[in-house]
């Protein structure tokens, strides 16, 4: 029987694949990489593409990744997959959007935190919550 | 005393409210379970990242990524994660209190503060109290996706890279159990066993980077190094950025679970309270009814006696 290694494909949102594999072919940034068991330790950036897995027993499976990172240990291969296509420009664009939303919000706002006001407001809210709690306890008591 | 009809209307209106709160309680319970599942689903990714980062910080002493270097602090950044909706008890209030306490400490040392807000409640709060909000995301929904966060997080990471901020915290609620949520101020940047703030929940600070002892012991273990493709710096950059994003994502997911948990508890107590009120009013109603009957009877008897 062919040698196997543990293959995990995970994204920040969920686990995509976790099983034994005989070989895995991944879309590395510099070209496709075929990883067999006992490969030397490797870290690589992946680009978007297909990951082809030869599972234990020879069954082939393929998973699409939109980029990410590959970590290889002799017996464990981990693919940290991105959930979205990452491109410098796209990221910059969404950062810009987040900034704009903040500016929109800041329009009529002081840039300095008014700590006295914050504390007063929080204290008030917390007192209210405590009162509610107290009333509940009293209610439950009788 | 209120008349019978008035009390009856009041009772039925409270009953309607009770129906709503108990429905909300059940919705929150099922959403909470799903949020918890998401919390555990995102864990393997973050754990793997931590493993690799831990290794890198040791194997690559010659390349010091700015994320790993402790700098003198001029300005601090905060990512405040709150819920989008209310009706979840003191969840957000407690969180903001924790955040403000921590910010105040920096303020007293005359450091500037930049804030990134996630969630409508946080943006409303900072709108009221002021603060230099540099990025903002809201309406992430019950199933936040990492794409929605990338922009906001990037603003803070860029600020850090450009030296605009020298430390980054994330403030969120940690899910302990359904009944308990703990507001946490966790240090995100720089990564490493930096001096954690002396804080009520100081052990929680270390959660992300609980390396020190283990690391010291395992130091000799790292006699091998990875092959890097294309090269070490690029890989480390890509990795660290994703690591930070996954930390923030996890905080957001955890906060969603907390929100649902807190809402469930709040709605349960609202339902119970409504029940108590109904019981009380029912008693008043019955008494009023009985009094009316008694009065009518005595009037009839008195009338009969007079004839």
Provide structural commentary:
- The complex is a heterodimer of chains A (142) and B (307).
- Chain A has 142 residues and is of the alpha+beta class.
- Chain A folds into two domains: 5-87, Sandwich (ATP Synthase, domain 1), CATH 2.60.15; 91-139, Single alpha-helices involved in coiled-coils or other helix-helix interfaces (Up-down Bundle), CATH 1.20.5.
- Chain A has two helices and six strands.
- In chain A, strands 1-2-4-5-6 form a five-stranded mixed barrel.
- In chain A, strand 2 and strand 3 (31-35) form a beta hairpin.
- The longest helix of chain A is centred in the last third of the chain and has 27 residues, at 115-141.
- Chain A starts with a strand and ends with a helix.
- The relative contact order of chain A is 0.14.
- The model of chain A has no long low-confidence stretch (mean pLDDT 82).
- Chain B is an alpha/beta fold.
- Chain B is built from eight helices and six strands; from the N terminus they run H-H-E-H-E-H-E-H-E-E-H-H-E-H.
- A five-stranded mixed beta sheet of chain B has the order 3-2-1-4-5, with helices on both faces.
- In chain B, helix 1 runs antiparallel to helix 8 (232-306), helix 2 packs antiparallel against helix 8 and helix 5 (146-161) crosses helix 8 (232-306).
- The longest helix of chain B is centred in the last third of the chain and has 75 residues, at 232-306.
- Chain B starts with a helix and ends with a helix.
- Residues 194-220 of chain B have low confidence and may be disordered.
- The chains are: A alpha+beta (142), B alpha/beta (307).
- At the A-B interface, strand 1, strand 4, strand 5, helix 1 and helix 2 of A face helix 2, helix 3, strand 2, helix 4 and strand 3 of B.
């Amino acid at each position: 029987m062919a040698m196997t290694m543990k293959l995990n494909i995970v994204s920040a949102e969920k686990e995509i694949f976790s099983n034994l594999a005989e070989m895995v072919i991944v879309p590395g940034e510099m070209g496709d990489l075929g990883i067999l068991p006992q490969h030397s330790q490797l870290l690589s950036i992946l680009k978007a593409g297909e990951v082809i897995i030869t599972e234990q027993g020879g069954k082939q499976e393929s998973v699409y990744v939109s980029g990410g990172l590959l970590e290889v240990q002799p017996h464990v291969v981990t693919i940290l997959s991105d959930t979205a296509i990452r491109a410098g420009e796209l990221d910059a664009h969404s950062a810009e959007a987040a900034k704009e939303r903040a500016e929109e919000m800041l329009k009529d706002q002081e840039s300095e935190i008014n700590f006295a006001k914050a504390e007063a407001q929080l204290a008030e809210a917390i007192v209210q919550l405590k009162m509610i709690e107290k009333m509940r306890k009293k209610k439950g008591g009788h | 005393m209120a008349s019978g009809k008035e009390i009856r209307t009041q009772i039925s209106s409270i009953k309607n409210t009770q129906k709503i709160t108990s429905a909300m309680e059940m919705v929150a319970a099922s959403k909470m379970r799903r949020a918890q599942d998401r919390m555990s689903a995102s864990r393997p990714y973050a754990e793997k990242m931590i493993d690799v980062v831990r290794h890198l910080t040791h194997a690559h002493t010659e390349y010091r990524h700015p994320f790993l270097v402790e700098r003198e602090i001029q300005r601090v950044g905060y990512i405040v994660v709150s819920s989008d909706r209310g009706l979840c008890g003191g969840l957000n209030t407690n969180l903001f209190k924790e955040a403000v306490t921590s910010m105040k400490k920096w303020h007293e040392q005359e450091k500037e503060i930049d804030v990134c807000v996630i969630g409508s409640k946080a943006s409303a709060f900072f709108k009221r109290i002021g603060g230099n909000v540099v990025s903002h995301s809201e309406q992430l929904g019950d199933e936040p996706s990492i794409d929605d966060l990338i922009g906001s997080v990037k603003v803070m990471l860029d600020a850090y890279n450009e030296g605009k901020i020298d430390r980054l915290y994330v403030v969120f609620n940690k899910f302990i159990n359904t009944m308990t949520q703990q507001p946490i101020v966790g240090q995100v940047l720089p990564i490493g066993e930096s001096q954690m703030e002396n804080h009520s929940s100081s052990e929680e600070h270390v959660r992300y980077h609980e390396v020190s002892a283990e690391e010291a012991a395992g130091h000799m273990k790292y006699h091998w190094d990875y092959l890097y493709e294309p090269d070490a710096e690029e890989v480390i950059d890509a990795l660290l950025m994703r690591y930070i994003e996954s930390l923030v994502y996890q905080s957001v997911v955890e906060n969603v679970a907390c929100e649902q948990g807190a809402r469930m508890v709040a709605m349960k107590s609202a339902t119970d309270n409504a029940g108590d009120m109904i019981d009380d009013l029912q008693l008043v109603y019955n008494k009023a009814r009985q009094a009316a009957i008694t009065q009518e009877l005595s009037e009839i008897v008195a009338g009969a006696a007079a004839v």
